[in-house]
Amino acid sequence: MDRNSVIGFLLMGLLLVGYIFYNNKQAQNAAHEKAIQDSIANVNKPKTVPVDTVASLAGTQLDSAHQAQISGEYGVFAAAAVGTEQTSVLENDVVKITFSNKGGQPASVQLKKFKTHEGQPLMLTNNSFNRLSVEVPASPTKSLPSADLFFAASQPQQSGDQQSISYRLNAAGGAYLEFTYSLKPGSYVVDYNIHAVGFNNILPGNQKTIALQWNSQEDKQEQDMQNERLNNQVHWMTNKEKHDYFTLQRTPHEKLDNELKWISVKQQFFNTTFIAKKTDFASADINTKVPESANIVGQTYTTLQIPYDRSADFNFPIEIYYGPNHYKTLKSFDLGMEKIIPLGSGIFAFVKYVNKWLIIPVFNFLSGFIHNYGLIIILLTIFIRLLIAPFTYQSYVSQAKMKVLKPEIEELKKKYGDDQQTFGVEQMKLFKSAGVNPLGGCLPMLLQLPILVAMYSFFPSSIELRQESFLWATDLSTYDSIAHLPFNIPFYGDHVSLFTLLMTVTSFMLAFYNRGMADQSNPAMKYMPYIMPIMFLGIFNRTAAALTFYYFLSNLVSIILQFVIQKFVINEAKIHAQIQENKKKPVNKSKWQGKLEEMQKRQQEMQQRNKK
């Protein structure tokens, strides 16, 4: 490996390390943020109406004192204060949703085709923290969360291939609030319609919006809680087609004043998204909390403002997506929802196009007829290496040329000693006369960098790889582990990833194989190829097994290709003869080269003057 190749490798490594640390950076002020989150959560948490006897009065005959107490607290919704909780189910082949008449809301949501890391049913919603509630006016001065009131439920209906169920909350004077939910076969989408009748008579005259409170708790589903929390985010799309997001660990509160087409709470592999079907959400206020719990990834408290036109008969249709972060599925909505999948961000945002136009199409094509994802990764690796094979070949030719010129370069070093300026000028003349491009060895590395970064984004977020096994790796979407350590090693972890070790070993093999090409007089150039694998060992130990497997395969292919090309394809004697022929040809200097040499000559003259 020549000096320029080492520089290219070093730049690639530094850029990759920077990208990894950018994506994995933890919030440094966690304790301070936790205090803020707790206070915000307490303020924003839905309030339970303080009537101690209400729960115990369900199904009993109320006396006049209790009736007066409930009427004072619940106003026009006093009749809905007491009831018996009952559930109903809408179900298709991919999702099962259980609804409760208390609040007329989803009580649990199960994704039927997926399991947790422990093999349990995967529930996106399954506890009392999750609430879907409309703020209803109990009186001119008081409002209540609908989630605390009992709705009258209809029986589930079947219309064609669509199931539906309705919940009605009746108010005094004939006004009512009605929620209707519909589910189609094979769909992760629930049609949710908010129907308010007569609210124009009981809402304040200046009120232009209705508050929809959506609380969501994300429970642990995967092997690595740290990665789950890094991927626990809130995403949204404004009516101006602007997508943005934040991570719960880093942002305790976000106020969105723009109109929103959709808003999503994203987990590592799944998401719940509210999509405004006809009229956009007016705004959103989001508070978050990351509890100190081994089983809770994060919690969000989102208040969506629904624009209200004050009509006597008001409808606001919403689509709720409960499903996987599957690129093709999310893209089918044609709303930019696929942007919640991290295919490239920050300074490496451009690699999302590598994923969209190269990695994902090839991956999907292969998975169409191959069901072993380890084999798919092998074929994908071979395809990528074939794609850059011409550049790889030119790189090895460039290295061979540099190797042939190495004795002459050593002679120049002896001749000019410490005069690096003159040495540089003469070295460039030698390269030019021999027809050698000193940067020829860098191009394949620069081409591999965006592909490697694209893989770094794609593999850990690919729902297709989730819980897919290969060899000793039981889940290609997370790290493989052949041993769990009884202690934690800083910058490494508490487990041993075999694919990461293989990746590191093959990286050392490449460095050792190319040791003769490095500049032995420069310690940085001499030892850097051995330092980078050690750095990567700690960084990649927690990453997806699919990624480290790919990196290991790529290194292995490089070793085999380099051996075959240099042993059986490249003829150094022929290259040496060609270089000698090139030296005899007149050298045509470009304008840029002429200016560069002129600048170098001036610098030499100035240095000589300074010495005198």
Automatic annotation (TrEMBL):
Originating gene: yidC
One function term, GO molecular function aspect: membrane insertase activity
Record's protein name: Membrane protein insertase YidC
Keywords tagged on the record: Cell membrane, Chaperone, Membrane, Protein transport, Transmembrane, Transmembrane helix, Transport
Transmembrane spans: 6-22, 340-360, 372-393, 438-459, 495-513, 534-553
Lineage summary: Bacteria, Pseudomonadati, Bacteroidota, Chitinophagia, Chitinophagales
Domain Membrane insertase YidC/Oxa/ALB C-terminal: 373-567
InterPro entries: Membr_insert_YidC, Membr_insert_YidC_N, YidC/ALB3/OXA1/COX18, YidC/Oxa/ALB_C, YidC_ALB_C, YidC_periplasmic_sf
Major place of residence: membrane
Gene Ontology CC: plasma membrane
Function according to Swiss-Prot or TrEMBL: Required for the insertion and/or proper folding and/or complex formation of integral membrane proteins into the membrane. Involved in integration of membrane proteins that insert both dependently and independently of the Sec translocase complex, as well as at least some lipoproteins. Aids folding of multispanning membrane proteins.
Domain Membrane insertase YidC N-terminal: 90-350
Recorded family membership: Belongs to the OXA1/ALB3/YidC family. Type 1 subfamily.
GO biological process, one term: protein transport
Subcellular location: Cell inner membrane; Cell membrane
Keyword check for DNA-binding: no
Stretches with biased composition (Basic and acidic residues): 594-604
